[in-house]
Amino acid sequence: MLAPICCIRLLVATPATRLLVALFALGFRPFFLLAGLDACAAVALWLCVLAGLLPPPTWLTPSLWHAHEMLFGLVGAAIAGFLLTAVPNWTGAPPVRGPALAALAALWLAGRAAMALAGSLPAAVVAAVDAAFLPALAVAVGRPVLAARQTRNAGVIGIVVALALANVAAQLDALGLAHGAAPIALHGAVALAILLVSTIGGRIVPAFTASALRASGCAAEVRGHGARDRAALALLALWVATELLAPRTSASGAAALAAAAASALRMGGWQARRTRSEPLLWSLHLGLAWIPSVSRRSPPPTW
């Protein structure tokens, strides 16, 4: 009777088991790790394809495949890591951890494997496996937000759903069911990622800056602008819509210019100049300042 119990205790006590338990205890741990590994592996694979050392995966065009993997692979993992960690803090709900978190990570990995083997696997299998991750993520992070009735965070979940639909549109193009949809979907996915970064960044950058300035004894006040925040996000959302419905037109250009101006005005009062001695802080401000520089009419993609 004691032997099975001792064996279980030994199993739990092994370093490998403890490592796995720790790895899948919080969402950012596996997904930020996967994002870093994917960035290195995808760049190396792409360089080998460009050099002619490896054949490109047979999925639309090589450049479209590369764009897809950067957006729905690398960026998708980063989004998952953040939201799976942030949503429990927003809602007070238990985090996704253990086998459920491992299953999400396995689903993301399966998508990357399917896309790498595109051409060797049936196209329908590639599409189904790759398209499964973002809906699963939306359910995992959306249920606690909806249960807590947090309308403020519902828009973030909506962006994840929109990214999932963009991925489906790209896969339908690869299946020959929606010719020409992939470039528009991928271009729209870039805009959606920018909207998500702006939404979250507008919350954490002023908060982190205010906390750091207080800790250093600086009396400067970090001022938020509720009306400017709402206007900037609304105009960015309008820009996303025009990029999806009327990409690279006068309408999308006007929406981009308005979103860029509103995003720049939004950052006024965040005391960015006082963060020069804190690289972790000024890098956040620099990242947010990058958004107005790209939220403008973009040239037609060469995908």
Which secondary structure elements does this structure contain, and how are they paired or packed?
Layout: H1 2-13, H2 15-23, H3 28-50, H4 62-91, H5 99-116, H6 123-131, H7 133-147, H8 151-174, H9 181-215, H10 226-245, H11 250-266, H12 279-294
Helix pairs in contact: 3-4, 4-5, 4-7, 4-9, 5-6, 6-8, 7-8, 8-9, 9-10, 9-12, 10-11, 11-12
Q: What can you tell me about this protein's structure?
A:
The chain has 303 residues and is mostly helical. It has two domains: 25-179, no CATH class; 180-303, no CATH class. It has helices spanning 2-13, 15-23, 28-50, 62-91, 99-116, 123-131, 133-147, 151-174, 181-215, 226-245, 250-266, 279-294. Helix 3 (28-50) runs antiparallel to helix 4 (62-91), helix 8 packs antiparallel against helix 9 and helix 11 (250-266) runs antiparallel to helix 12 (279-294). The longest helix is centred in the middle third of the chain and has 35 residues, at 181-215. The radius of gyration is 21 Å and the shape is globular.
How much helix is in the residues? over 70%
Number of strands: 0
Percent of sequence in beta strands: under 5%
* Count of discrete structural domains: 2
From the N-terminal CA to the C-terminal CA, the straight-line distance is: 64 Å
Mean pLDDT: 87
Q: Provide the succession of SSEs.
A: HHHHHHHHHHHH
Which residues form runs of ≥5 with pLDDT under 50?
1-11, 297-302
Q: What general outline do the C-alpha atoms trace? A: globular
What does the main sheet amount to?
none
Category from helices, strands and their pairing: mainly alpha
Count the helices. How many?
12
Radius of gyration: 21 Å
